[in-house]
Amino acid sequence: MKKLAIAFLLVASLMLIAVLVSLIPSDMWFIRTIDLVREPMSYAAAILLLAALFIGGARRWLTVGMFAAVIVINVWRIWPYSFLADTQLALAEDGAAATSGQCFSAMAVNVKVKNQKYGEVADQIARYNPDVLFLMETDQAWIDNLEPVLAGYDHVDRHPQSEAFGLVFATRLPVAKANIVENTHRDTPTLYATLQPEGTVPVEFIGLHPKPPLPGWNTELRDENIVNAGFQTPDRLPDAVVMGDFNDVPWSRTTSKFRETGDWRDPRVGRGTYPTFPAEMTLVGWPLDHLMVKGGIELQSFEVLPNNSSDHRAMLAQVCAPMQNPAETE
Fold first, then answer.
1. Do residues 16 and 111 share a domain?
2. So what's the pLDDT on residue 261?
3. Does residue 306 form part of some domain?
4. Residues in a beta bridge with 323
5. pTM to 2 decimal places
């Protein structure tokens, strides 16, 4: 029992050091990775705290106190994405007034480039039949296998890559322009499209998939990609939607800066974290896939979809663009 108590004390010490280090404003990959696991780490700390109460030992309360500190720090960081916090967006399901704008559906799917279960992803896309479709991690094989689905769209941009950063953008909405650019680093493209549903103001759609924090790969370029994508958009339109796999969690300083500097609103604030990765264990996973809006854009609904064979779950939203002032068209 004494050895077990020492082991618990050691684990508590390491977890506390990790969460304290994670508060350092650094782009080192091993520091930024801790942000990704705050939620599952809190669950683990709570279980270990309860177990520590029954193990005993001279330092039991020190162990319990350190586990409690881990939980408190992580909950403090995640708090805006709990159901106890205030929301940023009113949804139809909340009893919000019906929008006066024109609505369309938008879906973002990270297909996982090594995944070969093309049919399951294609079936899910066909089932929800979104007006705007943004695909990530698409190589040529994925594009070839999804052509029957893509054939149902008026506008399709294909940008295959053999690694994990290919993109596809497809829509039935009128497209004023669409560009896939590498705005911070080669092989990590970002999609910018200006859409204009009939009778509405023009809407900028941004599709984003930067590289994750990995051993030997710090987050400076990823952070720059995320922040620039929402702030330095080509048309600087006031009404915009962003979707994609940020490889970052919403409570990190990077995504928080993205949201604040670009005046974006996140529908998860005040509702929950809505984990999307890993797809088969979302109860202990984290929210790497994002949806945000700005300006006069409203949401009727948004959801994380069921598993489709990828390692990420897809996101679907009903987006409403404000109607154009008749005087502006004269």
1. no
2. 84
3. yes
4. 200
5. 0.89
